[in-house]
Amino acid sequence: TKQKLWGGRFTGKTDPLMHEFNQSLRYDRRMHAADIRGSIAYAKALTKVGILTSEEEQQIVRGLQTVGKEWEDGVFNIQPDDEDIHTANERRLSELIGPLGGKLHTGRSRNDQVATDMRLWLLDEVKDVEAGLKALIRVMVERAEQEKDYLLPGYTHLQRGQPIRWSHLLLSHAFSFHADLQRLQQLIPRVSVLPLGCGALAGNPFVVDREFLAKELGFQSVAENSLYGVGDRDFIVEFMMWASLSMTHISRMAEDLVIYSTAEFGFVTLSDAYSTGSSIMPQKKNPDSLELLRGKSGRVFGNMAGFLMTLKGLPSTYNKDLQEDKEPLFDAVDTISASFKIAEGVVATMEVHADKMRQALTMDVLATDLADYLVRKGVPFRETHHISGRAVALAESRKCQLNDLTLQDYQSLNAKFTDDIHSVFDFEASVERRESIGGTSRKMVERQIAVLRKALEN
Ligand code: ARG
């Protein structure tokens, strides 16, 4: 290597550690197919403005296809000076077709090239992520369909609140994922903006047809400002924000299941396929899958927060800091894809214990229904709430359940109690009364299933 321009105190060569520090091929090789696709489209655009003859275009395209195939077959020969996927592909192209390879980069910069590759790559991945999310929702809907009969206490503050259907709880998580599905679909137009043809920063002096490029590569729109085109990475932040939120939903569901899988609750048992043992305590079956799901939500959020820190304060257009967009994005995509699959497997295979759920239904979770009973007899709710609370206290002092109190006990609390009081102490009747939209009655649970099924069709 020759001495660098800024020689002086330098010995000429890039410091070996700096050389390595600068290299991104180790991870950005994942975008090899996107890089080739972008280059093929760009070669065509150059032909349209007379920079390449169609003979030259064909040679370049064939060369690029060969390079792409080498990556796919795992035989691409990486050279020490291949700095990133863009330089590696161009170096190999020129080896294959000679100096003509050097015409491809006319008017193009790695700045518009890398931004294009990232967007193309992410658009492809989003399709898989979406499929994984839909598969998870589907499994949850199927379980909800089959287990509509199971009742358990619904909790607030982790204290028993009111009886609900197990399916209602499952579907509550599924609706969070449904909103994630919508949000994922809604962020696509902002990823699908073409930077190619922005050049290094000021635009393309050979006046390549960018609308043609967008069409060739399947972009929905063209970046209208070249400085924005090369410098924007908001689409990466937005995807990672999306992933952070969706991982948060996975994490909250995982936490419910961790609690429900304890011996103290015993509502669910994870299948062996998603549990692990202890190296010292032979009896243990730990819900590691759920704990990892919960833990990895922090990791994805960290990717997002970390890259946002990188972005903050950068001057306009391209700065090498932007190379730090890749590892967090790749990791976020890998982590959330795996998480959807694991969550799907856990939900599909866990055992659900309807009997244990039923045992947890103590009569006190009908205290609201008891208050509502008097409301139906014309007593204002604020009074009935108090009366029902006194019934709970009375039962507690007698160490008995609400339905063990006598009619006389109830009548001593309020004269409107009559012997139909016992109709209150029926969990099934309680959930069936919740029949406005969103309630836990059978019909409203079925309605939720129908809504989600419909959403999955698109
Ligand atoms: N590897 C670089 C990246 O990922 C490609 C762009 C390099 N551009 C430049 N002007 N050095 O950001």
From TrEMBL:
Annotated metabolic or biological route of this protein: Amino-acid biosynthesis; L-arginine biosynthesis; L-arginine from L-ornithine and carbamoyl phosphate: step 3/3
Gene3D superfamilies documented for this protein: Fumarase/aspartase (C-terminal domain), Fumarase/aspartase (Central domain), Fumarase/aspartase (N-terminal domain)
Record CDD domains: Argininosuccinate_lyase (cd01359)
Keyword Lyase applies: yes
Biological processes, Gene Ontology terms: L-arginine biosynthetic process via ornithine
Domain Argininosuccinate lyase C-terminal: 365-432
A single MF term (Gene Ontology): argininosuccinate lyase activity
Catalytic activity: 2-(N(omega)-L-arginino)succinate = fumarate + L-arginine
InterPro entries xref list: Arg_succ_lyase_C, Argininosuccinate_lyase, Fumarase/histidase_N, Fumarate_lyase_CS, Fumarate_lyase_fam, Fumarate_lyase_N, L-Aspartase-like
Pfam families with a match to the protein in the record: ASL_C2, Lyase_1
EC identifiers of the protein: 4.3.2.1
Top-rank taxon, per record: Eukaryota
A GO cellular-component term linked to this record: cytosol
Keywords: Lyase
Domain Fumarate lyase N-terminal stretches: 8-302
Keyword Lyase: yes
Protein family: Belongs to the lyase 1 family. Argininosuccinate lyase subfamily.
PANTHER family, sorted: ARGININOSUCCINATE LYASE
Name of the featured protein: Argininosuccinate lyase
